Amino acid sequence: GLAYIANNLDIHYEVLDNLESAETYRSRLTLTNRGTKEIRHGPWAIYFNFIRLIEPKHLLENPSRYIIPNVGMKFVHITGSLFKLEPVQGFRALSFGKNLSFDFDSQYFSVARTDVMANWYIASEGLKAVNVKMTSGEDLKFVGKFDTKEKWKRTKDDKYNPFTPAERLKQIEVETKKPEPGSIIPTPVEMKVESGKYVNINDWVIATSAEYENEAKYLGNKLKLSIGINTAVTNTKILRLLQENVDVKIDGRSSTSKERYQVDVKENTITISAPESSGIFYGIQSLLAVTNVERKQVLMVSLFCHIVV
C-alpha cells in the first residue's frame, strides 16, 4: 500500500548543471526500493513542491503531462509550485535494492539545498496521503551536495565561489585596535599607548591591602584572577591596587579630586594607584576598557585621570 512505498522508497535529488543552458538547469532524481517487496505500477503518485517550473518546454504548453522518455513515469504540473510524479505504462517494478534514475530540466537555476522543499508525500484517490519518510523533516538529507562550479554557479558569468574555511575566518576576523582616549570613560587627562603591545595576565595575582579588598574581589571576578591580601609582593606577574597620592596635572595645576587615579601597564606588573577607594574603582574601569577579558590580554598603556564631581 501507500505506507509501504512511503516508508521504503529512497528518494535522492541532485542538481547536475546550471551552466549548460542559459534558460534551464539539469537535475537528477533517483528512486530506490529499500524494502523487501516490489514497488509496482499502480494508481499512486508522489506529490511535491518545487520552486522552479519542471520541463518548461513541455509543461508550459501542456501542464497535465510530460512523460519522461524510457522511464515509465510522468510529471504533472498541478498548480503554482505543486507537482506530481506518477507511473505510467512502461513502468518497471522496483524490486529490493533496485533503482530508477532519470534526468530532467527545470527553469532558471538552483544553487542551494534550500531551493528544494521537504515533505513529499504519496497519495492515491480515496486513500489517506502518507509522507515519504526519506523527505520528512527539514534536514533535506535527500538533497545532494552543491560541490562543483556547475552546481553552485547561476550562470557562466557568475563570479561567486563558496568561501573556504580560511576565507570565512578572514571575513569574520575583527582587527584589534588600540583604544583612543575618548573610548575610555572617563576620558583620561593623559594617555600613552605602546602600539600593538599586549600583556598576557593569564596566571597573574591581584595584590592589595585590606582596605581595597572589595575592589580587588570585583576585579578578580572580572578577570578570573586570584587575590592576595596583605601578602608579600614579588616583582613579576602582579596586578597591584595601591593607595598613593597620584599627581594628575590639569592645565599645569595638580588635581585635588579624590577620584583621581593612575593606571600603569608594564610587561611584568600592572599598577592602579589612587588616594581613595573610589579612584581605585574608576581605575579598574579604565583597565577593563583596555583589556581583552576572554584572552586575558591587556594593552600596554599608561594613563592619568581625575573625576570631576
From TrEMBL:
Pfam families assigned to the protein according to its UniProt record, in alphabetical order: CHB_HEX (PF03173), Glyco_hydro_20b (PF02838)
Annotated protein name in UniProt: N-acetyl-beta-glucosaminidase
Origin superkingdom: Eukaryota
Origin organism lineage: Eukaryota, Metazoa, Cnidaria, Anthozoa, Octocorallia
Matches recorded under SMART domains: CHB_HEX
Keyword entries, A-Z: Glycosidase, Hydrolase
Gene Ontology molecular-function annotations: hydrolase activity, hydrolyzing O-glycosyl compounds; polysaccharide binding
